[in-house]
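User: My instructor asked us to take a sequence, write out its structure as tokens, and then describe one feature of it. I'm not sure where to start. Here is the sequence I was given:
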Amino acid sequence: MSEVQVLKPLKTWSHLAARRRKPSEYEIVSANLHYNDKNAMSPWELDPELAMNRWYKTNTFGSALKHDDWNSFRDPEEVVYRSYNMMQDGQENYVHGLFDQFNSREHDLSLDPRWAGTLARLYTPTRYLFHTLQMASSYVGQVSPASTITNCNYFQMADSFRWLSHTAYRTKELSMTFADKGFVVDERNYWENDVAWQGFRELMEKVLVTWDWAEAFVALSLVAKPAIDEAILRKLGESARHNGDMLLGLLNDAQLVDSARHRRWATSLVKMALEKPGNAEVIKGWVAKWEPLADKAIDAYCAALADVSNAAQSAKQATREFRQSLGL
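Assistant: Let's start with the prediction itself. The structure tokens for your sequence are:
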């Protein structure tokens, strides 16, 4: 009669046991949560030729960007759903406080009608742009090879939705003061037809149909988002201050706080990827492919900001300095 082997129970999850310490909240709720990375031939444990399996085999596990263990990636700030909500609740309170304070001072009545026209053309259509950021972040998160990468993209997606909501709120407010400027009704026309927007529209439409997860990450987080940060959040914010619109300047500053956090996790992911020989050349190739589109978008948008000197050149230089800081 064979002896019955009694298994000693683990003190934590098996994939965290090697650390020989109590796992953090971040590790417990964020690490190794995907179940589609166990079988490379059939990620979803169904027919290998199922369309969804073929999609993930090609665009997730078949990417030219390789790493031996994508699950080893960690968000440098270890953001989890609970801490994200606590953090962004404070951000939302700050933004709502801005809305309330400037509204009580009848801020919009003090704006020059010509600046209001600029807002109708160059600011309120950003809700379309922020929606593309939301969708692109969602896609990269969905097809990322590790749950810790997915989570960073999903929090980024949530931030884009918050920005969209703030813009929509301001659009309605401005329409109540400037009924003749086309607020609420003309944004789509500006987005689809105004020369200032066509560069960003082309850029983001192409990002949204980039299926390889790693190229989509590079196009979005290393090229498109920095271009939007520098041209729209920063340069439009400068123009707003020049025109007495401190509210928009402060709103854009608040969004740049989120963007800085997005850049920090993207930086960590790139540095991890660069540990693998050959990845630097892959990423540089994708940057070279997407950078001209981003530059074109910056040039077209910043050309409309006549009161911000060297806006386009300064914005493009800032995007390059960010990428250079990654070793690219």
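For the description part of your assignment, you could build on this observation: DSSP finds twelve helices and no strands in the chain. Try explaining in your own words what that tells you about the chain.
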